[in-house]
Amino acid sequence: MGQYWHLVNINRREVLGHLGKLGEAFCYSFRDVMALLAGSWAGCCIMCIGDYARGCPSNVLTSEEVAEINPYMFYGFTCRYREIIPAEYVDLRGMVLRNLTKYVYVRQDVVIQELNSKKRPGDIGNILLTNICWSTNSDCTMMVDLSQGGWAGDRFDVMSLSSVEDDEEEWEDVTEDQVKLTRFALSC
């Protein structure tokens, strides 16, 4: 049957609507998410939570948040978040998705060349979704199990490539590996 998913900002207690089944979510554009990550969601913990989720990755919730929820009802807890509708538009040309927790980034220009097709839009939003899903049940209606993404609950933003190149911090470009992972997930 599969579970339903929604995209949440843990820090701001906001949800960006329901995505439906995970495989279906890849057919949509993620421009709204990218606009939020370039604006009010920049630097926040982001996850795509399945409705079968029981608990969450370690170090995502504070001890106060853990005490507030029943560990078997994590999805239900996030359903109480405020639903938002982004009104911004962000031009993603020359931009990168940065994972601020892991100090890695993904280039939008390369992802567009490699993933964009007539079947579905391909952009850094697809890369994000491939990595931020979380559920304790592996049923995600896809041939590849994305239910415990390695970036679930990490902090993200969207910045210009030049800002990463000029930053004194050491950033790793993981674009090629992430394109391969996402292409594989979408091909199954």
Plain-language structure description:
- With 188 residues, the chain is α/β, with parallel strands linked by helices.
- It has one domain.
- It is built from 8 helices and 9 strands.
- Strands 1, 2, 3, 4, 5, 6, 7, 8 and 9 form a 9-stranded mixed beta sheet that branches.
- A hairpin with a 4-residue loop joins β1 (4-9) and β2 (14-21).
- The longest helix has 13 residues, at 175-187.
- The model has no long low-confidence stretch (mean pLDDT 81).
Mean pLDDT over all positions: 81
The gross shape turns out to be: globular
Largest sheet: 9 strands, mixed
Question: What is the CA–CA distance across the termini?
Answer: 17 Å
Note the topology.
Elements: E1 4-9, E2 14-21, H1 22-25, H2 31-38, E3 44-50, H3 63-68, H4 74-78, E4 82-83, E5 95-99, E6 104-107, H5 108-115, H6 124-132, E7 133-134, E8 155-160, H7 161-166, E9 172-173, H8 175-187
Parallel strand pairs: 2-4, 3-7, 6-9
Antiparallel strand pairs: 1-2, 1-3, 3-8, 5-6, 5-8
